[in-house]
Write a structure and sequence with these properties.
By secondary structure, the protein is mainly beta. It is built from five helices and 43 strands. A hairpin with a 7-residue loop joins strand 8 and strand 9.
């Protein structure tokens, strides 16, 4: 009923057209854009008199527009300034409309949405945010691999392409990350999300916001939010833009892509399809993946738009197991099909009021199948041997989850940039999620788990902009069918000690505090037994986090240094314990664990010359298990470091554009970390490794781009997860035709 009332309110507002930027003789209006002609919101715009005195000051709205009213006939100067962009100045008289296209500094800032649920320049955001651009995404295939250089993030893959791929951020668990696609929730109920078959196809950018964001996005946003944004069509020419590419490499690998995009009047579109096949290097280690992606937009009128997002991923991967310890499983495989759909109606009801209504549906069908029992074997590795043979178990496990999501968001702006009271942005949002799941072992007679729950969340956020100070406070009331009602707050601050350029440029201090919650999985809450029994009274997993940092620009904005320190405490972590051994093995889930993680992130960006750009990151993580339940493996005992989260890690990326040639080098370092062989070999740590990838492309004058990439250039042998050898030297090359 609430969703219906919200929908009716929004639809009624659409019937009340408002002239947003009509020009009058005493008015100067304008729009602020970046070099790609995307609007820049919340940009400071000054109106100066002929002598240089400031007469008025404002900020652009979500569409990059500004307006000065009540002006007498005279000559004025419009000045636009934003950290990370060049200063813009232009003379204007009343009745004029100014288009300010801001040139970027060598090290630029970007507009982000995820940190505040509203468009904001990253310079004005206190949260630690990393943006992967469309150009960076186009250089890779699997999104998980492209996330490796993100500071504070540890990407762990159990083997080669298509294998289980987990993301750990700032010491959080691999189900502590909220993953969104244009607002569509991709997580399974309970937070689980693996990046195994998620490609970077047709993505415009990816935003990673570190730290708990449950105040904005509810359950699962415990350690980070990763949001993917689908590419939108642009009117580069009067006709559609087509792109076709084909590449191949060793391990019987090939990748084919096709895309079309464009704009026709009020309608824009972007469609892409891709197919990736590889046999990898181990027996029964093949990976086949198909991706379909589409974005359609329709401008119903000047201030009202409709956006439809569609995406599908269909993949199958052979699962040979821990081949470093013994014989491979030659018939087991994992099949996964994901379907995502979202539609958003957005209306700028007035220049100070913006509304959006979204419906989304996401489903993931996963099958893990092993129908043949391979011969038993005794695991062994480097002189270590297990005490007894291990046996293969047949299985046909189904995990089919679905989610319906409805959200309404209203953003309201008040005040003026130049006033003593500052400018204020208020956000109200209401969300409803219906989570459905079917989980079961189809070879066993026990019934499958059929679960359903409804969750509601209400968000209120206030952003205050006073000169150089940007303060954000928010709170969410989460009403979850599993654990009841909880309140999660968040506070974020950014303050500029300096804003100018020169040898020592802008200096920004930031601070963040927040709480995070994660609901139990459907199995943890609803499993009927008899061996695994759900616990309907589980509390949510929780975190308390605060961080602070400084960002310093120098060398005439050719360099930027960012240093962040964080402290996270996780509690009520859910674990499994045996409750009975008679008449047979029975267990259930309880809130057993506590962990803590603190550390630092260092990010250095350099742009020393035209076409040359470098980025280096380093993460120090001091993590510890502080409380644990019944331990089946010594690595989970209290006092140990957290599993598969390195103490030291980092990355070095170099980008060089010279005429038609582009060269990209990425080196990732991962230090020693706690791990387990889970095969009774006694291994409790995993040595560090360095992985160096190199890629190059050449844009010919005939609309053809030739490219090549080498992964693990030094052909290192290592294991990201004990027992699963990482992919050795992998080479691929191909060509792309665009017209």
């Amino acid at each position: 009923m609430t969703a219906r009332l919200v929908s009716l309110t929004l639809l009624l507002s659409l019937l009340c057209p408002v002239s947003l930027l009509s020009e009058s003789p005493g008015t100067i209006t304008g729009t602020v854009l970046d070099p790609a002609r995307a609007p820049l919101p919340r940009v400071t715009v000054q109106l100066l008199a002929a002598g240089g005195a400031e007469l008025a000051r404002t900020r652009t709205d979500a569409q990059g527009r500004f307006r000065f009213e009540g002006l007498s006939p005279a000559s004025y100067t419009v000045v636009v300034e934003l950290v990370g962009f060049e200063r813009f100045s232009q003379s204007a008289a009343p009745g004029a409309s100014v288009e300010a296209v801001l040139a970027v500094r060598p090290v630029r800032e970007r507009v982000v949405v995820t940190a505040t649920r509203t468009e904001a320049p990253s310079a004005q955001v206190g949260a630690s945010t990393t943006v992967l651009t469309g150009e960076e995404l186009s250089r890779g295939v699997m999104l998980g691999e492209l996330l490796r250089p993100v500071p504070g993030a540890a990407v762990v893959r159990s083997g080669a392409s298509g294998a289980l791929t987990s993301l750990f951020v700032r010491g959080g668990e691999n189900d502590h990350n909220k993953v969104l696609l244009d607002g569509i929730v991709l997580n399974e109920p309970g937070g689980t999300y693996f990046f195994s078959n998620l490609t970077a196809e047709n993505l415009e950018r990816v935003e990673v916001v570190r730290g708990p964001q449950s105040a904005l996005f509810g359950s699962d946003a415990v350690a980070s939010v990763v949001q993917l944004f689908t590419r939108r069509g642009e009117a580069e020419t009067a006709r559609p833009r087509f792109s076709f590419s084909l590449e191949g490499g060793n391990h019987a690998s090939w990748l084919g892509r096709a895309a079309v995009s464009g704009e026709a009047g009020r309608f824009d579109y972007s469609l892409a399809a891709a197919r990736f096949d590889t046999d990898n290097q181990e027996p029964n280690n093949h990976f086949r993946n198909s991706t379909l992606s589409a974005s359609f937009g329709l401008a119903l009128r000047e201030a009202t738009s409709l956006r439809v997002i569609l995406r599908g991923e269909l993949g199958q991967a052979g699962t040979p197991g821990q081949t470093a310890f013994g014989r491979p499983d030659l018939d087991a495989f994992f099949h996964r099909g994901d379907t995502d759909f979202g539609v958003t109606l957005r209306d700028e009801t007035a220049g100070y009021w913006d509304q959006r209504l979204t419906y989304a549906y996401a489903q993931s069908r996963q099958v893990s199948r092993n129908l043949l029992a391979d011969p038993p074997f005794v695991p062994s590795f480097e002189g270590r041997t297990a005490p007894f043979p291990f046996f293969d178990f047949t299985s046909d496990f189904l995990n089919h989850t679905r989610r319906h999501h409805v959200s309404y968001q209203s953003d309201w702006r008040a005040g003026a940039a130049g006033s003593s009271a500052g400018q204020h942005f208020f956000t109200f949002a209401f969300e409803w999620d219906r989570e459905l799941g079917l989980l079961g072992e189809r070879l066993f007679p026990s019934p499958a788990v059929e679960a359903e729950r409804d969750n509601f969340g209400t968000v209120f956020q206030h952003q205050a902009l006073w000169g150089r100070l940007y303060l954000t406070n928010g709170v969410r009331v989460e009403d979850n069918a599993s654990f009841g009602t909880t309140v999660v707050p968040r506070s974020s601050l950014a303050y500029f000690l300096r804003t100018g350029g020169g040898a020592l440029g802008a200096t920004k201090f930031k601070f963040n505090f927040g709480l995070g919650v994660k609901e139990p999985t459907l199995v943890e809450s609803f499993s009927p037994g008899p061996f695994v029994v759900g616990n309907a009274r589980l509390a949510p997993e929780r975190t308390r986090s605060f961080d602070f940092g400084v960002e310093q620009r120098f060398w005439a904005d050719r360099a930027k240094l960012e240093v962040n320190w964080f402290d996270n405490r996780f509690r009520d972590l859910i674990g499994f314990e045996i409750t009975s051994f008679t008449p047979f093995f029975t267990g259930s889930f309880f809130n057993l664990g506590r962990t803590k993680a603190k550390g630092a992130e260092v990010v250095l960006e350099l742009a020393p010359g035209k076409g040359l750009h470098g980025r280096g990151t380093y993460t120090f993580l001091d993590s510890q298990v502080t409380e644990s339940g019944t331990v089946f493996d010594p690595v989970f005992e209290a006092g140990n470091r957290l599993l598969r989260r390195p103490k030291h890690s980092g990355a070095l990326q170099l980008f060089w554009d010279w005429k038609r040639l582009t060269v990209v080098s990425t080196a990732v370092f991962v230090g020693r970390r706690t791990d387990s062989d889970f095969s009774l070999l006694g291994l409790t740590s995993n040595p560090g490794y360095t992985k160096w990838d190199l890629g190059a492309s050449y844009r010919s004058p005939h609309r053809v781009t030739y490219f090549a990439a080498v992964e693990n250039l030094l052909n290192r042998e290592y294991m990201e997860v004990l027992g699963f050898p990482a992919l050795k030297l992998a080479v691929r090359a191909g060509a792309r035709l665009e017209f």
